Amino acid sequence: LKIKELIQSYHKVIMIHASKSFGLSESDLRNVIMYPMFLGESYSKSNEDVPMEYFELERKYLPNVEQYFTPSRTEYNQLIDSYQINSNKVKVIPRGIDEVFERVLRDKRPNEDIVRLVYIGSIKKQKNTLEALELLKVLKIHYKKIELTIIGKVQDNIYKDKVDEFIATHHLSENVKHHFSLTKSEINQIVQLSDICISTSLWETFG
What we know:
Helix content: 25-40%
Order of helices and strands: HEHEHHEHEEHEHEHE
Structural class: alpha/beta
């Protein structure tokens, strides 16, 4: 299902995330196609502190949005069950994968001498970086040479301090690499040289 097929009857379309709708008039919201990209309920499931005012604003503005696109049935159900959005307004369009990321089928590991893990995600509670490091700590017992590459910006400095403390306490500094910002091509190169791409997020739009 292509987006252009859904919006061809509109003369003007505004595509926004959930919080960007706050303050828009009802007439503006009738021109809106929304990619929620994390509702208040999702933040709560990520152990983030969400003010009640945020939920109140969601419930005030979201019902007036003309159309929703979401990448998953999980968020689809959230919109309908938690926010009472009419199901006719919600379309599920699965995420695509940028062509820059090569699809490679392997019959053997890319590195025989070292186990390489990669985690693409910002440093914050929701991405649960500490759990990725806990996994590394356990695997280090079984593999003499192992490396975890984290790709993502720091969005929570307090949480970053906890990450640094964990790395120091468990002597993982030589096993962890952190890239704050890379191009898609650079990320692809790292992925291609890794054994597995992991995710320890507490919550994502896909669940």
